[in-house]
Every structure is written in structure tokens, then in C-alpha cells.
Amino acid sequence: MDLSPDLPSIAPAQRADARAFAAYLIEHVAESGRRGAPHFAVATSLIPEEVEQNALDRWSKALDEPLWGRAWLLRSSDLRPRVIGHIELRGGRVRAEGHRAVVAMGILAPYTGQGHGRRLLETAIAWARDKAGLAYLDLGVFSNNERARRLYTRMGFVPVGTREDAFRVDGIILDDIQMTLALRDPAAGGARAR
Predict the structure, then answer these.
(1) Alpha helix (H) ranges present in 1-45?
(2) Of 189, 24, 178, 9, whose CA–CA distance to 108 is shortest?
């Protein structure tokens, strides 16, 4: 929990947060590729009830279930705090990839460039390593999103491949750079198939 009253707070998402999370995510996705921002989302519009229900479904699953999710919300320090950013870790589709999670995160434009992305990543990485015992965190970032790529690199994520022409949004071709962060020694997890 953050101590400074002026600093936006970070707290784990609860079921009661799903509606506020959905409203924030819809606002955030609408910023993608607009007013000089790089494209960072493939969706151009979201349905609030679907976003809310999907979040509730992920957040209610145990970590040993496929497609689990755990999120942390960044809330403004206003008199009426609202969700202004998030980070979510999502488990894989099958149990055999249960040692990994995919990172999804975002912050509303007026709050970017203030260190909140680093704070969100530090929170999720510590939880993944120390509480969930995960071995890897994976993410995809569009090649045009240089600010996000720099942040992920500073946090220890390394590029492991690029899906060229992965998405086409508003007539723009977007390459998707895949990045991974090893949270523990890969050799400790078992023998690698050859």
C-alpha cells in the first residue's frame, strides 16, 4: 500500500471493483492511437457488461485453474478516487503452462510518464515471484510503443521474438514484440525436452 496521500494508490482488485475497472478500461482503450498516442490496443470499443463479467470470471479462479487472473488497480488521489491504471496477470489456457503468466497493463494518458508503470510492474512482479511462485512473466508490446518497450526492458524483460504484421488497426500494420521476464532460474523447474 502506498503511504503518500498525493501519490495514486495501488491495491489488489476485488470483485467489487469490476464495474470501475470496466469503466476505466473502456476509457483507456479509447485512447489507443488517438491524439498522438501509439496504438496499444486492438479493440476499438468494448461492452461494459462483458468487460466486467470477464474480469469477475478471471479474478474468481484459483491459481491452479486455466485462465485465472489477478489485477492491481492504480487509483487517483482525488477526493473521489477513480481507477486510472491497472496491471493484470493472466494464467494460461492449460495447466502445463501454470508456471507462467501474461502481463496486461495500462494507464490513462494524463497519468503516464510519472513512474506509475514501474510501480505497477514492481507490485505484480513481487507477487508473481514471492506469492504465486511463478517462473516467468510474458507480454506482448507493439513495436511502435517505444515508451512501454523501454519500461519493460528497464524492468528486466527481454525480447524473445516478433510477430510481424500481427495486427491491423485503423489501417496501420502493427508488429507485436514478445518479451519475457525470468523470475527464477529456469534450470530449477525441470528438464527441458530436446
Answers:
(1) 18-30
(2) 24
Question: Which helix (H) or strand (E) covers residue 34, if one does?
Answer: none
CA atoms within 13 A on the CB side of 133: 5
Q: How far apart are the C-alpha atoms of 24 and 122, rounded to whole Å?
A: 21
Check: CB of residue 69 under 8 Å from CB of residue 88: yes
Q: Strands, E, within the chain: which ranges? A: 9-12, 69-75, 83-91, 100-107, 136-142, 158-169, 172-182
Kindly report, residue by residue over 19-44, the tens digit of the pLDDT.
Answer: 999 999 999 999 988 877 777 887 76
**Domains of the chain: residue spans and CATH:** 9-134 (3.40.630.30)
Helix (H, G, I), strand (E, B) or coil at 17: helix
User: What is the C-alpha to C-alpha distance for residues 193 and 35, in angstroms, rounded to an integer?
Assistant: 47
What is the rounded distance in angstroms from the CA atom of residue 166 to the CA atom of residue 177? 9
Low-confidence ranges of the chain (pLDDT < 70): 1-5, 44-45, 186-194
